[in-house]
Amino acid sequence: MEKYDVIIIGAGAAGLFCAAQAGQRGLRVLLLDNGKKPGRKILMSGGGRCNFTNLYTEPAAYLSHNPHFCKSALARYTQWDFIALVNQYGIAYHEKTLGQLFCDDSAQQIVDLLMAECEKGRVTLRLRSEVLAVRRDDEGYLVQLNGAEVRAGKLVIASGGLSMPGLGASPFGYRLAEQFGLRVYPTRAALVPFTLHKPLLEQLQTLSGVSLPTTIEAANGKRFKEAMLFTHRGLSGPSVLQISSYWQPGEFVTIDLSPERDLAAFIDEERQARPNQSLKNTLAKPLPKRLVDVLQSLGTIPEVTLKQLNAKQQRELTESLHAWRVQPNGTEGYRTAEVTLGGVDTTQLSSKTLEARDVPGLYFIGEVVDVTGWLGGYNFQWAWSSAWACAQAL
Ligand SMILES: Cc1cc2nc3c(=O)[nH]c(=O)nc-3n(C[C@H](O)[C@H](O)[C@H](O)COP(=O)(O)OP(=O)(O)OC[C@H]3O[C@@H](n4cnc5c(N)ncnc54)[C@H](O)[C@@H]3O)c2cc1C
């Protein structure tokens, strides 16, 4: 039977980085994945350019039942450490918006970086490896694969969350945690578009493809100011993806369709200059024209000129545009979600080493853990930081 110091299950962002670090520290590492290629989500990420970290990474950008858990790893392996590694490989990158760093050329460069680091650490990578069972005995962990059994003193679970089942996502890590007596918080799709109830969806159907700056607020008061996109299924775009992580089924979200400009003041100014201008043409200046057309057909925007618009109408109109209340029907689910909320309960893991407190030699890193970042490179940074912290302890 083949023996290693460490077996890592999952050759995604966290598994690849952990394997490389552990290998470079002199450990014999076996990295297993059920897919044909390593780092499949990395290749898909950031529209093929991988938003590999965020300049403003801080614990407040992560959701968890234990918001303190991520602090240690994020502080010990920071965004600046990963940026230094990217620089070392000469990978060109740029800040797109809000501190989000993307490769100039291709996400493949990040996978190549990770593979080169694994090579430096003499990591054995075995793809198309389905893990059938895991057992623990006095010497460590026995992992049964399709066709072989392998053994190691330590086992790292880096099998990710449930989003995008087409890319190999599986509940493996959660089941394994439960097998060893660890609690797993219920999971749910996050960073995911909203679907809408049929009547509203039909009213908004012609807006598919329209994007505009917004501020969106969840029922718990959490808000994000980013672009929103109307789709043929409902609402998407960065602000919607962000707020989806804070939304509970049945709740409303409140959308400011003109966060940059006070529409009441704008209408007053326009009325002074052009009293005979229609309200519709006036609002088509700060808002997308197609949106204004739909809002007029729904009766939200009265068919009047500015001088005909009375104070009550103006107040009701601007209030509804600055605080449009929408009750999503649901989300598009794991099929399109970028991440999974919930996962392995962090109170049972060491925040310094990511080792299960009551199961020596068993570690959980990356998305399988109950730590979920905002949109914008935060999830990869958690993968790098948790992987690094774990590798130091192996
Ligand atoms: C379309 C998309 C775009 C994204 N873009 C970004 C972005 O730009 N920036 C960002 O920060 N985050 C982004 N994310 C989120 C990010 O990809 C994940 O948070 C990150 O990949 C998690 O890393 P991980 O190593 O924990 O899991 P993963 O990268 O998901 O890796 C887990 C690996 O485990 C393997 N596996 C699962 N089950 C088994 C099993 N039973 N046996 C063997 N192997 C198994 C899987 O095949 C996979 O290779 C995006 C996600 C998606 C879906």
TrEMBL record:
Coiled coil: none annotated. It comes from the Bacteria. Keywords: FAD, Flavoprotein. Residues 5-392 form the RsdA/BaiN/AoA(So)-like Rossmann fold-like domain. InterPro entries: BaiN-like, BaiN-like_dom_sf, FAD/NAD-bd_sf, RsdA/BaiN/AoA(So)-like_dom, RsdA/BaiN/AoA(So)_Rossmann. The keyword Coiled coil does not apply. Its cofactor is FAD. PANTHER family: OS12G0638800 PROTEIN. This is Aminoacetone oxidase family FAD-binding enzyme.
